[in-house]
Amino acid sequence: MRYSGYTCWRAVIANVGDEPPGATETWGAAGRVGVIPLTQQRIYWFACINAPANDEEFKRFKVKDLYEHFRHYHAPIPGILRQTKDSALLQNDIYDLKPLKKFAYGNVLLLGDAAHATTPNMGQGACQAIEDAVVLAEELKRHGSYHQAFPAFEQRRLRRTRDIVRQSRAIGQAAQLENSLLIAARDLLLRAMPAALRSKQFEKLYTVDFKGAAF
Ligand SMILES: Cc1cc2nc3c(=O)[nH]c(=O)nc-3n(C[C@H](O)[C@H](O)[C@H](O)COP(=O)(O)OP(=O)(O)OC[C@H]3O[C@@H](n4cnc5c(N)ncnc54)[C@H](O)[C@@H]3O)c2cc1C
Question: CA 88, CA 110: separation in Å to the nearest integer?
Answer without folding.
Answer: 32
